[in-house]
Amino acid sequence: MEGFDRQKEAEVRRHREEEQRQKEEERRQKEEEQRQKEEEQRQKEEERKQKEQEQREWDFFWEEERRIIEDDKAFEEDVKLWKRIYNF
Description:
The chain is mainly alpha-helical.
């Protein structure tokens, strides 16, 4: 009878240890999934910031281009005016 009890106790102990290992493994998996999600989120945020920066740079570039074109048009108008004034 005593041998049976020890065997039963050992079985229960192994079962508990196995459950504990499984819980620990599940916890590790959840932590890893959480780390992956956080990393993906960080990458998305970094990409978003990079795209915003690129857009600001393009906006600045096109604004400068627009100013140059306007200045060129204004200069052409000035040249036409001076030509009329001085009959060129």
